[in-house]
Each structure stands twice: as structure tokens, then as C-alpha cells.
Amino acid sequence: MGTANSTRYTTAGAGGVPALPPEIEYRAWNKDEHVVARVCGVSVQTVRRWRAAGDGPQWKKLGASVKYSLAAVFEWLETLPGGGGREQ
């Protein structure tokens, strides 16, 4: 039986591996290019082109896999020029 202050995280994946706490999950380098494409609203091929051109969000090579963190993706998105939001 847990205490009133204990935190439980749901299990993820086979074998009941505990999910990461949200604050760690956000910064974890465990997202693939498909997740980045969905977050950015572009195709996976566009994410691959960005990476090949040295553009796009920061990524890391972990073994044979290319991984992203949500924090890096959102930080990169904040650097892009935008429009609207004009003060009146």
C-alpha cells in the first residue's frame, strides 16, 4: 500500500516496464522521426531531408537509430519565424 504522496506511473510496453515520469519523458532521447513528423505536421521524408541538410531539430545517433527528444523538437520550433499575433 502506497503513501498519500507516492506517485505511480502507468506501465508501457511488454513486460510491464514502468513509464518514465512526464518531466523525464519530455527530455528523453527516445522519439523517432515518425513522432517528429507528427509533431511538426510534415512527412517523415521531410524530417529526413532536414537531417541530411543539417536543418531541423537536434538529433542523436543511438546505435543504428536516430532519436529525438520532444524538448529539442519544441525548442527548434520556437526558433522558426512566425507570423500573426500582431499587437494592435
Q: How does this model look, in words?
A:
The chain is mostly helical. 36% of the residues lie in helices and 7% in strands. It contains four helices and two strands. Strand 1 (60-62) and strand 2 (65-67) form a beta hairpin. Helix 2 (33-40) crosses helix 3 (44-53). The longest helix has 10 residues, at 44-53. The chain is globular and about 50 Å long. The mean pLDDT is 87.
Identify the CATH class of the domain at 20-77.
Answer: Mainly Alpha
Oligomer: single chain
> Rg from C-alpha positions?
17 Å
Overall pLDDT score: 87
Helical fraction equals 25-40%
What is the CATH third-level topology name of the domain at 20-77?
Answer: Arc Repressor Mutant, subunit A
The helix/strand series, from N terminus to C terminus, equals HHHEEH
How much beta, percentage-wise?
A: 5-15%
Give me the secondary-structure category: mainly alpha
The low-confidence parts are none
**Strands ordered across the widest β-sheet:** 1-2
Largest sheet: 2 strands, antiparallel
Please give the alpha-carbon distance between the first and last residues: 57 Å
Indicate the overall shape.
globular
Q: How many separate helices?
A: 4
Corresponding CATH architecture of the domain at 20-77: Orthogonal Bundle
Can you count the beta strands?
Answer: 2
